[in-house]
Amino acid sequence: MNTLSGKHILLGVTGGIAAYKSAELVRCLRKQGAVVRVVMTTAAQEFITPLTLQALSGQPVCSDLLDPRSEAAMGHIELARWADALLVAPATADFIARLVQGRADDLLAAVCLACEAPLAVAPAMNRAMWQQPATQDNLALLRARRVNVLGPATGSQACGETGPGRMLEPDELTRLLAGLFQGGALAGRRVLVTAGPTREPIDPVRYISNRSSGKMGYAIARAAAEAGAQVTLVTGPVALVLPEQVDGILVETAEQMHAAVMEHIADTDIFIAAAAVADYRPQSVARKKLKKSAAGITLALEPNPDILAAVAALPEPPFTLGFAAETDALEANARKKLRAKSLDMIAANVVGPGRGFEVDDNALRVFWDGGEQQFGQTRKTRLARQLVALLAHRYQTKFDKDRVIKLHAKDSA
Ligand code: C5P
Predict the structure, then answer these.
(1) Cα(337) to centroid of ligand 1, in Å?
(2) Do 168 and 290 have their domain in common?
(3) Do residues 194 and 173 share a domain?
(4) For the CA atoms of 403, 406, 408, 411, what is the dihedral angle to 10 degrees?
(5) pLDDT (tens digit, 9 = 90+) per residue, 9-53?
(6) The domain spanning residue 298 has which CATH number?
(7) Rounded to whole angstroms, what are the CA distances from 358 to 272, 289, 345, 378?
(8) Which has fewest Cβ within 10 Å: 47, 125, 313, 411?
(9) What is the span of the domain harbouring residue 261?
């Protein structure tokens, strides 16, 4: 069954060059059986005519907040009530900023404010505008308010530059919007994943690192997104493409990974530490390339922060899943880490030549207080889905238990 079939989709179009793609988006949505109504801002009408979108949607296009005719028939409140989901595509930097402020000074902004259905935005803007802290802060706020941020994609832009900020293609937006109705096992949850190795610089050209490819962490991030979660992936340097439905934060060192995680952790329901974080870093980083010496050199190392332990020790920690890559005594070592770091779950695997790191297959044993589940050797993408399904189940169990305890405390107060 197509999840968009019969759904009322309100498409908001704002004034960016990607507005020309909105015509194709209306077609894609209708092809999936959705009933589409379009609201345009004044600026959007400079890029594409209401007539085009009216013809394609088969419905009148609305744009005036104070139009007596539309207020009588389908005013902003009626439109907001009509929608099963509201998608703003393209969403310009300006519209995103106005959404953050809760403005209601044009029809689309007013509908967004009045709408209780899920809201999704597909940002589209120049790469520099996208990368500005102002825009990124605005998006972080929207995500914290459970707005679904779809994309953007990276590539060549209408302004002639190349980088992040392209609106996702209409078929991809249609697929992601359909996902909002699928109600996956992690629907509405915010998941933060670390992946890949870290690099700890010795001098400007050398570093200490490890064999982690990031494949497991990336597969988990994708599987969590498929299960309906809003996923942020903090990744060390790897040769993998970021999954499109995931927000990526690229870091290099353990300290940068720690800072990125701590910046986002307050908004996180579930933290998955799949990264192979270097345990130590050189005590001092040489400013110039170290010269070869016949006598050899000794590197003094100091410990890196343990990101997972730090997250689990927060006053209100998210649900935590750690990894244990072991060469021996798998269960004993994994359970020791589960307890020592106060984790909710730990996924353990054997590492060694051709096992665990760098390869496409893996097997896992997952432990929690009082339980265990084993997943046999299979592709990491499949394993990630199995792991996410178990995680969602364990998370829900803990969530329900906590709720019962809180209700109990309230009753006896
Ligand atoms: O103690 P050990 O390094 O084996 O623990 C592995 C788990 O802890 C993994 O989930 C890894 O991502 C996490 N970790 C971390 N920060 C570190 C070291 C490990 O988050 N500095």
Answers:
(1) 9
(2) no
(3) no
(4) -120
(5) 999 999 999 999 999 999 999 999 999 999 999 999 999 999 999
(6) 3.40.50.10300
(7) 19, 29, 23, 14
(8) 411
(9) 190-412
